[in-house]
Amino acid sequence: MKIAVAFPGVHRKGGVERVAFECARYLSDRNHDVTVLADEWERDETRPIRYRHVSAAAWPHFRRPTAFFRNATKTLLELSGSFDALATYGCVCPTGGVYWVQSVHAAWMEHSRRLRPSLSMIRWKQRLNPIHACLLRLEQKHLGERRYKKLIALTDDVRDDLTRYYGVPAEDVIVLPNGFAASEFNLEQRGQLRAEMRRRLGYGPTDHIVIFVANELERKGFGPLLRAIERTGNARLKLLAVGRLNANAYSAEIGKLGLADRVQFSGPTAGVMSYYAAADAFALPTQYEAWGMVIVEAMACGLPVIASRLAGAAVAVKEPANGYLLNDPGDVEEITGKLRKLLAGEFDGAERISQSVQAYSWANVLAKYEEVLLGTGNFACT
Q: Which uninterrupted H or E stretch holds 368?
């Protein structure tokens, strides 16, 4: 079967990007003829995957989603008849395929209105940022106009959001969570990499490292986590932030809290496993997360986690065995209390934590995904 995998990024430096990356590899391993349509990608030389550049470049920056949508749609129309199926992962992709819904922007906008004070600066910036209108228009095109072969929702909540915001019929949706690469995220790898990574990052044997992995700071709860780290009063508790993050955004607060030597930023990486190896626990007090692949990846490495109940992957967290859930991701006292529980060792051992998420391995998840993709018939780019 000839399959086009479309998303602006197909690599391991982001959440949705990794989903597309893993799908392309799995489908190729299943002897499908796979072509990646992307603006940037991580080439896999071990598989016969084709790569075709589709530009997402645009000015002003908020036009990038629309630019990729138009350019990818044009490319598919030029290649009419070349593919049997289209796999997409966001509203920025062409219509007419199997759309694995990684988030519902309309749902996030409603969540943010509840969580952010109406007169706050962050709320005003959101109101004035035209990218939100662009994304909502693209969601309407895909979902409101039913321009898809099939929809895949990460959780029952995401499926309900599709119906609530866009009137999507329940029979159009299959629920399937994201997975993790079991060959990459596991206890053996963590053990092999741990000592060297802690040495490279400058951590001592008594330092307790909490890792935060994201490509955003404010929405993912970096601020409350930062304040909770300070409030524990434990000088050996340190925060490692990994991803495409603006370290300057919180530099003043880090200095004010006296955490300059306890917070370390690392840029985006395709080798996030090595950073998990250096850590002792994982935290993501996110305000909205349709899934949260990093939560499951961290647990696969044997790390206890602190996650928001607003993350879809919260279904994998069983308190206190493999971590703790936050009722309010903005409540610094609640986060502080959960951090203290982790510091006290109130969780299962690494082996049992890792075992608790094995059902989410990509091998299990993508076998079901392939069935959906193959069962929808030929797509038509619209």
A: helix 362-374
